[in-house]
Amino acid sequence: MQSNPLFIQRLNVGPYEVNTYIVACPETLEGIIIDPGGEDEKVHRVIEDHHIHPRYLINTHGHRDHVQSNVAISTHYDIPVCMHVDDKTFFQDRAASQAPETRKTYDIDIALHHDDVLTVGTLKVKVIHTPGHTPGSVCLHINNCLFSGDTLFVESAGRADLPGGNFHTLIRSIHQRLVPLPPDTIVYPGHDYGPTPVSTIGREIKENIYITDFISPST
C-alpha cells in the first residue's frame, strides 16, 4: 500500500455509527467534510486542533444518517453543501411533505455530476457516480483514496432494498466504476461494518462477496 499524503480523520458518529471524514490538503490545510452524521463537536474539535479550513461539505448520498448535520455544519463554516443531482431531486421530493427542518436538509448548494472535480488546495476531488444504494450515490476519489460512502464496504456493499435502491444497478456501479481503479486504492467506507476500518480495491476484488460472487465479465 503506497503512502498517503492526505490529512484524513475518521469520526464514527451518531446512532447509526456513520463514518464522517475530514480530509485536507497537507500543504494548504484546505479541506472537505464528508457525510456529517451528528456529534458536531467532534468535527469542530478536529478542525480547530489541526487548523483545517473547510471548503465544501459533501454527501456521498442522501440518507438521513449521512446528512444529519448538513445544516449545522455548513452554516457554522459558511461552506456549500454538495450532493449528486439525482439524490438532491429524489430526497427533496420525498421531503416535500415533511417538517421544514427536514426539507431544509436537502437545500443543496452544488448539485454534483459524474466526473465533476472539486479543487481543494492542491487536491482534486473527483466525483464517481455509483447509483444502486440510492439513485445519486457517489464515491469520492482523491489521490489514491476512495471515500466509498454506502456503495462499497469492507467485504460487503450497501443495501439496495430501500426506496430508490436497485441491486443490479449497485453491482454494475461497483463493476464498471470501482473495480477498474488501481488495486492499491485505499477504500474508506461510510460505515465500519467489516473486519477492518479500511481496505483496498485489490483486497475487495479478492475478498468481497459482492465482487467475487456477483460480478462477471457480462455484468
How would you summarize what this structure contains?
With about 220 residues, the protein is of the alpha/beta class. It has helices at about 40-50, 65, 70-75, 85-95, 100-105, 165-180, 200-205, 210; strands at about 5-15, 20-25, 30-35, 55-60, 80-85, 110, 115-120, 125-130, 140, 145-150, 150-155, 155, 185-190, 200.
Topology:
Layout: E1 7-13, E2 18-24, E3 30-34, H1 40-50, E4 53-58, H2 64-67, H3 70-77, E5 81-84, H4 85-95, H5 100-105, E6 110-112, E7 117-120, E8 123-129, E9 138-142, E10 145-149, E11 152-153, E12 156-157, H6 167-178, E13 186-189, E14 199-200, H7 201-207, H8 209-212
Parallel strand pairs: 3-4, 4-5, 5-6, 10-13
Antiparallel strand pairs: 1-2, 2-3, 7-8, 8-9, 9-10, 11-12, 13-14
Low-confidence stretches at least 5 residues in length (pLDDT < 50)? none
Query: What is the radius of gyration?
Result: 16 Å
Which strand order do you get reading across the main beta sheet? 1-2-3-4-5-6
Classify the secondary structure makeup into a structural class.
alpha/beta
Q: What would the CATH topology be?
A: Metallo-beta-lactamase, Chain A
Report the CATH superfamily: Ribonuclease Z/Hydroxyacylglutathione hydrolase-like
Number of domains: 1
Mean pLDDT equals 94
Distance between the termini: 28 Å
Which descriptor suits the 3D outline? globular
Q: Main beta sheet: strand number and arrangement?
A: 6 strands, mixed
Write the element-wise H/E pattern from the N-terminal end onward. Answer: EEEHEHHEHHEEEEEEEHEEHH
Number of strands: 14
**What's the CATH first level?**
Alpha Beta
